[in-house]
Amino acid sequence: MRGNITRRGQNSWRIKFDIGRDPITNKRRSRFVTVKGTKRNAETELARLISEQTSGASIDPSKITMSDFLKRWQDDHVAINVSAKTGERYQQLIRNQIVPHIGTIQLQKLRPHHLTHLYGTLGKTGLAALTIGHAHRLLHTALGHAGTWGLAQGNVAALVKPPKAHDREITILTDEQCSKLLNRIKGRTLYPILMLA
Fold this sequence. Notes:
CATH superfamily of the largest domain: Tyrosine recombinase, N-terminal domain
Distance between the termini: 69 Å
CATH architecture of the largest domain: Orthogonal Bundle
CATH topology of the largest domain: DNA polymerase, domain 1
Helix content: 40-55%
Number of domains: 3
Number of strands: 3
Strand order of the largest sheet: 1-2-3
Shape: elongated
Low-confidence stretches: none
């Protein structure tokens, strides 16, 4: 089993290592992983990944489902690279909107029509286009990492557009409506704030 390390930036390294031959084409396959830190960190990670691959503990990219991949993405990337609040929002989107619809599909078999169907289904349930857009951006980011990690050939989400979120026109109160509102809340704590506004 072979591998190499290439500098990607100031504190970033790309690891490339063999993951065996494709059972159908017999071509050699490689996996790519990006590591932040020192070259020593990258060397340690390369040794770990090669050991994991040799022992059979690594995930077979051809078998991993979207549910399994997103769980691994949350554990390996989200948990250490985004804020707790963002991570919690990602978890909600994955658990409530994404996994129930495409969680059983194998990552390598995910196609643009699956995402188009997902967005359409979510729209029919009454989910706002803005929230569907958040789910799309999450998938775009996660599937980008799938490519970097050698688990997928490309980013399927880059080929699909989520429904467009329409801006709502704000209704402005008339002078008469403002007067009625102020009269109704006179003497309450909100009165000075609204009066100033």
